Amino acid sequence: MTDFKKTPLHRVFETVRSEADRYGVSVVGSEIVGLVPAEALMDAADYYLRLENFSPSQVLERKLRESE
Asked: Radius of gyration over alpha carbons of the chain, in Å?
């Protein structure tokens, strides 16, 4: 993964899951190796949780960093 805006994490995950399904294999988990931008994780959460009117300003850690 080099550009999560062009290829979001959820699209990569769903593509791998779809390919696994073709071979009769289930994806039971995933892992992140290295660092990941918070925005990429928030985008994936937004996609899977179908959050209505979600804003990054609702993330607690982000709010705490702003107040420092």
From this structure: 15
Q: How far apart are CA 11 and CA 59, in angstroms?
A: 22
Is 0.70 topped by the overall pTM? yes
Number of domains in the chain: 1
Domain assignment of residue 15, given as a range: 9-66
Please give the single-letter amino acid code of residue 49.
L
pLDDT in tens, 26-40: 999 999 999 999 899
CA 26 from centroid of its chain's CA atoms = 19
Question: 3-state SS string over 1-26?
Answer: CCCCCCCCHHHHHHHHHHHHHHCCCC
Classify residue 56: in a domain, yes or no.
Answer: yes
Distance CA 56, CA 62 (A): 8
